[in-house]
Amino acid sequence: MPAPEQRVVNCPCGTRLLLRWTWSIGSAIYPVRCPDCGAEHQLHATPPIEVYRLDSQGNWEYVTTIGRAQS
Question: How high is the mean pLDDT of the chain?
Fold first, then answer.
């Protein structure tokens, strides 16, 4: 059974992003954009990748799910 993975990314604008995915064969580099400033962060993962942001109350807020590689 594939193991779930996650990574917290600190954007230069101050936003913290939580990225979650299940690791498996066929991973690739995916662009993840900060929902606040639009900065692009690269992540080596397997889709689908769930993206969350830390809100002002310290809770992870769902933003989007990324499902395909950058072409």
Answer: 88
